[in-house]
Write a structure and sequence with these properties.
Number of strands: 12
Family: Belongs to the LysR transcriptional regulatory family.
Largest sheet: 8 strands, mixed
Distance between the termini: 69 Å
Protein name: LysR family transcriptional regulator
Keywords: DNA-binding, Transcription, Transcription regulation
Organism: Mesobacillus maritimus
Structural class: alpha/beta
Radius of gyration: 32 Å
Low-confidence stretches: 297-301
CATH architecture of the largest domain: 3-Layer(aba) Sandwich
Strand content: 15-25%
InterPro entries: HTH-type_LysR_regulators (IPR050950), LysR_HTH_N (IPR000847), LysR_subst-bd (IPR005119), WH-like_DNA-bd_sf (IPR036388), WH_DNA-bd_sf (IPR036390)
Mean pLDDT: 88
Length: about 300
Amino acid sequence: MDIKHLQYFLEVVEWNSFSRAADHLYITQPTISKMIKNLERELEITLFERSRKQLVLTDAGQIIYEQAKLIDQAFKNLGTELEQLSGLKKGHIRIGLPPIFDAENFLKIIGYFHEEHPGITFQLVEYGSKKIEEAVENNDLDVGVIVLPTKKNLFDYFSIMEEDLKLVLHTSHPFANKEKVDLRDLANESFILFNKDFVLNDRIILSCNAAGFNPTIISESTQKSNIVEMVANNLGVALLPESVCDKLHKNVSSVKITNPTINWNLAVIWRKSQYLSYAAKEWLNFTRKQLDTEKQPMSSS
């Protein structure tokens, strides 16, 4: 059954005439009559009592009429909804963020996007990079912020931030007033790390191994605030991104790490060859443009 069959039927009922319905639709009367006949044949019912001078719906015709109105309205609503999606009047974006990430500037970009498209809603979830990749791969998230490298065969991405990790330690620690500390000098320290869902966990352990020691890990957490609080209570040392270290507890200091330095590169990823909503595509384009604008040097007056 074609939606046109039902729409032509509705026109005949509304105008109470095949000829007037045909005129309104800019088609010939034989055409609309044939469409109604085809509809009756397909449904195996009679829609009109044709023995009378006026068109009168049969009982079955009345049922079809009521349901056809609902179907026609749903079809029109579908068109409206799709127009709203393509016009970014509606939409929903699911974004994964790592808890270690200082997301202030990133959330500002989301705010700017929302100002331009107030009908778009956001779901923000906090996972480690490994879980974010898994969620994007399984279409549980549209996009995610992760620590590079990522699986290039599965994901498209663009970088949003690159910075070094710094040593975070209690202000009473002997290294607290140093300008920099070699990583190998931390061989006897107790480490507080993010848990194994975080790529940073692997990155730190591998870097320590490269410096000649296996770190002693006394605690793991999923929250940077808990890690900082443990350091503030002199339970151990941590390695955190530089941007996080700019907002540390008063009992905590941060020092540059050398030999080797440890860095992280954050990127926004999305699944290759997978459907992305209008809203998610536009948000990706918007975010990339905002980041490019922030990177441009300010002109001197």
